[in-house]
Amino acid sequence: MPNLPSLGLRNRTGRAAQPAATRAPAPVSAYVVDCGVYVDGHRLEGTWNHADAIEEVRGRGTGFVWIGLHEPTEEQINGIAETFGLHELAVEDAVHAHQRPKLERYDNTLFMVLKTVRYADTETRTATSEIVDTGELMVFLGRDFVITVRHGKHAELGELRCRLEQDPEQLALGPSAVLHGVADTVVDNYLDVTEAIQDDIDEIEAEVFEPRTKIDAEQIYLMKREVMELRRAVQPLSKPMQRLAEGYTPMIAEDVRSYFRNVEDHLARVSEMVGSFDELLTTLVDATLAKITLQQNTDMRKISAWVAIISTPTMIAGIYGMNFDFMPETGWKFGYPMVMVVMLVACIVLFKIFRKNKWL
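Above: the chain sequence. Below: its structure as tokens.
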């Protein structure tokens, strides 16, 4: 949680509230990551709760409130929902998560769901662990407020908030500038993840087509599963991003729409890369299965060759183990050594034949 200035709450006029005021300061709860008031692109000093923040903005008639939440419960978010007039269906989606990326409009509020992704470090990865960790990020957008709800242990927005606060001109465009920043950050993470996946797929491809290497098909299946997870995050977002870029609602400032078009272009690039990954991994799976089949056939030929070599002395020993009275050379002094020599020569001849035909 970022360090918030301990300057006390502000009243409607912007002056610091006196300690004897009847309104007690509301501490920032564990699920509220940050709550800031922005006027003309600049953040007002002080620590705010959601009620005082929106009161300040609407009293001024300008600016907006940006509240960041992390995995709030239904009970925790109810107060914020009542203050900002959030639709109950959108609030339910924000609390329970597990939603597909989407964009919905409820009266004067936009509700957007985005899937966040993070590429797991190679050192911490196991044979059954996920390569791509996913989370969710919900955004409520109103005329004078933006509320972000984050689910998952990654995709923090603290860095984005600091970056936007250093660019007052961008923040002065209003809440839609924050929505663009959130969407841009999420899509940039998509790009980073796809580049990391590309490197891993290149290594797998080199291993698959490297002569005389043993391939672990399980790793390819795991990679294909994670690419499908990434595709479920990327592809449903294309339509909402296109609607934002085309002016789906007047709540998106005209100057911000061009930025959404840039995000849409990046998203289209990611979608194309994910589609190519899926096709390439399917090809690698087929190539791996063919290579495994070839390796198994080679192993079977080796086994068959050794069985043929071993069966020759076994057959001769079996014949002379019948204990008949009248058998050739049973009474000869050199019979036993001769049989041993015959068996050894037969094994050597068979070995050379199989070796010449590359069965051994």
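The longest helix spans residues 254-320.
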